[in-house]
Design a protein that fits this description.
The structure is a homodimer of 324-residue chains.
Chain A lengths: L7 H10 L20 H13 L7 H22 L3 E2 L2 E2 L1 H5 L1 H19 L1 H4 L4 H29 L6 H27 L3 H28 L2 H4 L14 H9 L2 H12 L5 H13 L2 H22 L4 H16 L3
Antiparallel strand pairs in A: 1-2
Helix pairs in contact in A: 1-5, 2-3, 2-8, 2-15, 3-5, 3-7, 3-8, 7-8, 8-9, 9-14, 9-15, 11-13, 11-14, 14-15
């Protein structure tokens, strides 16, 4: 079938979303809206920690980065978010139907990239295992989204339920990135498992730090939506901590606020006070510290070169201390 | 990761869409809203035409049927269609965000089914080839959707452009179903190609007959949206035939009608008159006949058993003559 031309209709939006083109689909000579590329870097890191030539795992890293970006396009549509990475979200430019299609195309292209692993000498069994892992992770991410939608309508969420949700929604892909890199690099299952576990804890550190920044960070720095997570009624970890510990009276106050359609500055102030009174920020930071230690513990189980061990630990430190 | 319970949230909607459950997610003892299952049947047919045990290709047939159903869930959201297979569409029951997620989950589950081919003795190389073909087809279907969205805003579409659109949107998956079945059943490339070509022509027959039924068929029988394709401003093949052949005056009339936001009975009558005056139905039927012959020509290139040849030809006849 011909029709290479038609891919143009989605190519512009595709390149815009991953930060390589502007709103008129012109290529940017100096792309700077691509995101952190954390997940693809982790895939290459795990592979390189076990092998000399990291380039061999590049198709998997691309697949993972595209899978992540596909989920962001669809998330933005679902949440009606208007800003990401300091720019307008895709659906606000081309409308929901076409943004939906761009996302789905990116999903398929992600997987098509995996087949290039074969050209780089990865055997078919491993390519299949890697793609199977990615599909399962896709499903986990969707489960996380479903839980997230469910939690929006409730304040009866405890810490464990929240952690389960972010494990599906966020940590699963971070863990999968490392597991795929390791899987391509070794046949030794305990090593693959340790990388996967390192990723799960890393994912929690990442998400809980995001939760802190979403309330106490500067939106100009994070480049996320203009408004604070509280104004967006996101029940993130610090909120859950407050709900678990606060007085029945404060619980009623929060409950009333979260029943409102939209929140204002006054609501924000009240919620911030309850968070303060219950040391929510401190408790979240404590939990991040605990997850950071668990991540490093897993890393210590793997016998890797000094540079790889140091890089893996530095990343944990970076995620704990970042302010954007 | 645990969380099997959470899949329940999508399992009901999933089973509802494929016709196995009712609106309360209760399993139906006698499912009768599952659609024709044409594509999965074609996959099994091609495999069985070349092999004894059709059960071996079953995971691929399931993958194909789910891929098709995934695209229907997302299509219904995009087009805001409210009825499919005599029932409410999924998004009207659970809302757009959750329907979107159900579709994406189905997409991933489709591909996960392919891995079961390994357990049935299909080698890894073929599993990879089959999944590669399915991904490419996913992309083709999206290209078709994009063209379809584009054509909605224009009456400057000629027959070839329309055929290209339906080749992407509809014929590609029908062709892929046969190609995957053949690919799993033989190493002989010309046979795989002939099945794929048979599928392309079959897809055109299928879609153009759909176009006729969408205007002249009874909606009660087809189970599609209540309204006629004309009222939905769908520029299907008969409309394109009329636009190509009609007087400049009639072209202006049509153009005016298609600029309207919504069409009424009077517009419908006018369009029907123009279609009549330009023998649009007859021209479409002629083209279907031509495509049917081309399909059978491809079938004759393959040396298959008498029953398979007869079944393949009977299917063409059935698609040409169906009235639902």
């Amino acid at each position: 079938m011909s029709g290479q031309n038609h891919s143009r209709d989605l190519k512009g939006p595709f390149l815009y979303h991953i930060g390589s083109a502007d709103e008129n689909w012109n290529l940017l000579s100096n792309p700077n809206h691509s995101g952190k590329a954390l997940r693809s870097a982790l895939c290459l890191y795990a592979f390189h920690a076990l092998n000399d030539y990291w380039e061999k795992a590049l198709p998997a890293a691309i697949a993972i980065e595209l899978l992540h970006n596909f989920s962001l396009i669809h998330d933005d549509i679902q949440d009606h978010d208007t800003e990401r990475r300091h720019r307008r979200t895709l659906w606000t430019i081309i409308g929901e139907p076409k943004a939906l299609l761009t996302g789905s195309a990116m999903h398929s292209i992600a997987y098509l990239n995996l087949f290039y692993l074969k050209d780089r000498g990865i055997n078919e069994e491993k390519v299949l295992l890697a793609s199977q892992l990615l599909f399962k992770t896709s499903l986990d991410m969707i489960k996380g989204q479903v839980l997230d939608l469910k939690f929006e309508q409730s304040i009866q969420i405890n810490r464990n339920q929240y952690l389960e949700m972010i494990d599906f929604k966020t940590s699963s892909l971070i863990s999968c990135s490392l597991a795929v890199g390791a899987l391509l690099g070794t046949d030794h299952k305990p090593i693959i498992k340790a990388f996967a576990q390192y990723g799960l804890h890393l994912g929690r550190v990442f998400q809980l730090k995001d939760d802190i920044l979403g309330i106490w960070g500067q939106s100009r720095v994070t480049g996320k939506s203009e408004s604070n997570d509280i104004l967006r009624k996101k029940k993130s970890f610090p909120i859950i901590c407050a709900l678990e510990a606060c007085t029945p009276k404060d619980r009623k106050v929060l409950s009333k606020i979260y029943e409102k359609q939209t929140l204002g500055q006054q609501d924000l102030d009240v919620v911030m006070e309850v968070l303060e009174a219950n040391q929510s920020k401190g408790k979240t930071e404590e939990f991040i510290e605990f997850e950071a230690l668990s991540a490093i513990e897993q890393l210590n189980l793997i016998h890797i070169d000094g540079w790889a061990l140091k890089d893996g630990k530095d990343l944990v430190d970076f995620l704990v201390n970042r302010d954007y």
